[in-house]
Design brief:
Elements lengths: L2 H14 L3 E8 L3 H11 L4 H9 L5 H19 L5 H4 L1 E19 L5 E17 L5
Antiparallel strand pairs: 1-3, 2-3
């Protein structure tokens, strides 16, 4: 590895130390339905987002709530001496990407078949902090 590439890699690695994220892979809900829930909490404070997700009736909100709790526990693992309420955490980024599809056939009239695509998704959540004093 060249010196310039090594320096760039070191900077990227240092920046990732301050990121607190969680990933959910191969969730069996379609990406379109998951994005509706992700859009509700994007940019919100963690306490407010948990309230929104807890009382939302969509089934995708259960998965996003669990993912948010996982990201919070990742934050707590690195910041053991700090309180969550003092940190003023918010959802900096939440991405919903499509994953693999399960393809099935449904019988149709006159000997034909229609293809059914059961979609799944990957969700990545990154937490940020409003406090810059570290």
């Amino acid at each position: 590895m060249g010196s310039r590439k090594r320096k760039t890699a070191a900077v990227i690695k240092e920046n990732k130390k301050n990121l607190f994220f969680a990933k959910l892979n191969n969730c069996s809900i379609s990406p379109r339905k998951m994005r509706l829930v992700a859009d509700l909490v994007r940019g919100k404070a963690v306490e407010k987002a948990l309230g929104i997700l807890k009382f939302n009736t969509k089934s995708a909100s259960r998965y996003v709530e669990k993912l948010l709790m996982s990201a919070l526990s990742n934050w707590q693992a690195k910041n053991e001496n700090q309180d969550i309420s003092d940190a003023s955490l918010f959802i900096k980024e939440i991405r919903v990407d499509s994953a693999g599809m399960i393809k099935r056939l449904r019988p149709a009239p006159q000997g034909r078949a229609h293809r059914i695509r059961k979609r799944s998704n990957h969700v990545t959540m990154i937490l940020g902090s409003n406090n810059t004093n570290k």
